[in-house]
Each structure stands twice: as C-alpha cells, then as structure tokens.
Amino acid sequence: MAVVYEKTKLLTDKPLHYCPGCTHGIIHRLVAEAIDELGVQEKTIGIAPVGCAVFAYDYFNCDMMEAAHGRAPAVATGCKRVNPNNVVFTYQGDGDLASIGAAEITHAATRGENITVIFVNNAIYGMTGGQMAPTTLPGQVTTTSPYGRDPKLCGYPIRVSEMLATLDGPAYIARVSVHDVKHIMEAKKAIKKAFEMQIAGKGFSMVEVLSACPTNWGMTPQEALKWLEENMIPQYPLGVKKEVE
User: Fold this and answer.
1) Who's near 148: CB < 8 A, 6+ residues apart?
2) Strands 239-243 and 170-177
3) Residue 204 backbone dihedrals phi, psi, to 5 degrees
4) What is the domain range of residue 141?
C-alpha cells in the first residue's frame, strides 16, 4: 500500500495544546518537514519565546531553548555564533516579534545573522487574552480595542516583512499563508527555502506566516480561515519580499 501521508520524525507524540482551528499546528508540521527533508535534525536548535508557542519544545524533536519575551533573535544569535555549523531557528508570534521584540528582530536582521525566523502573524495577542497587537488590522475588534482599532489613536499595523526587506542584512524574506491547501504547499516551499539559505551561509532569513486565531477572533475555524483570506491578505500581501542570489 502506498503511503501518502505519515508523521514526520521531527514532531513528538505530545498532543498539541492549541485551540481548535488554530493554525500553529500546521506551521509546526511545515517547519518539521523542512528540517527532516534537509537532513539536519541532529544539528538543529529551535528557540521559542513567550506566547502561544511557548511549549514548542514539547513538539519539536530537536534541541530547543526558551527565551524571554521578544528575545529569541538574541538567543539564536548566540547559539549560531558559538557553533556556526548548527541550524538555528526562532518561532515567534506577532505580539512577541513585532512588539516587545521589535528591536531584537530589526538588529538581528540588519546584522545579517545567519539564522531563520518563523514569524506567525495572527493579528492579535493570542495567549494573554486577545489584546490589540502591532499587527492588528484597522477596525479590528480586540479586548483592548472594543470599537475596532482606530489608526488615528493607535497608529497603523506594522508590515514587518516589508520593513525588514529594506535592510541590507537579510538574505530571504517571504510572507505566506496557511488558509487553504494551495497556500500551505507554498508556505512549505518558503520555509524550506529559508532553511536552505541559512545552510548555504547566505545570512538572515524570515518567513512570515499569516495564521488564524478563531478563539480570540470570536469565530468558528471555518469563519477564521475565510476572514484571514478576505481581510489579512489585502493588508499583508503574500510573496517574496527579498531574496539574494
């Protein structure tokens, strides 16, 4: 019998703690598949800070470290500089990376640190109660913007990928989505490409993944995927933002 789908070795048997419809699980699978296919499991180190993915060390079958909120790029920089042969990645949410960790990610990128960043953007603070994040859309209702985000009061959402793509240090920056099968396959290619850039010594790479948060958005899983497609993608256009040869 032909095997069409099987569990990757890079994921443990620990049940995921994520809410129903959350797409963190899909993203975990894509990261794990990329590492597995590249054959670098034994020298891979993952860094997970505070946020919904705080327990990522339970799910990835490779060396994992936990960092303070927003500081994963600094920890990853240390890991990579101490042993340049390691493959080092961070797994960060938007509240972590784009808010308290904004300086960390910007300076890691401009230095061209040879690490890979998986940036999960669900436009909200997920773990701490659904507050407005730097990536929250104009008009989007959250627990701290009950009438919708007002750009005149709170500013506009930060397009992190476009911002970092203006720097000289990054080698590869792309934005993808996991709201349907076609885009999941494209996300897999981008994530694998980011790891390949690191292995080739090209420098800093980041893949921003648009992700659904049904619980804090107050939607069903199906509604959340449709909302992502119809609202987040126009605000955060998909595609490769920077790639060096």
Assistant:
1) 138, 139, 140, 141
2) antiparallel
3) -65, 135
4) 24-243
Give the tens place of pLDDT for each residue, 68-98: 999 999 999 999 999 999 999 999 999 999 9
CATH of the domain at 110: 3.40.50.970
Total domains, the chain = 1
CA distance 237 to 234: 6
Whether residue 5 lies inside any domain: the answer is no
Q: What is this structure's pTM?
A: 0.96
Answer yes or no: is pLDDT of 3 > 90.
Answer: no
Distance, in Å, from the CA atom of 235 to the CA atom of 245, rounded to the nearest integer, reads 28
- Cβ-in-10-Å burial (0-12, 13-18, 19+) of 221 comes to middle
Position 49 pLDDT exceeds 90: no
In angstroms, the CA 194 to CA 161 distance is 14
Residue 17 lies in a domain: no
> What does the pLDDT look like over 104-157, one tens digit per residue?
999 999 999 999 999 999 999 988 888 999 999 999 999 999 999 999 999 999
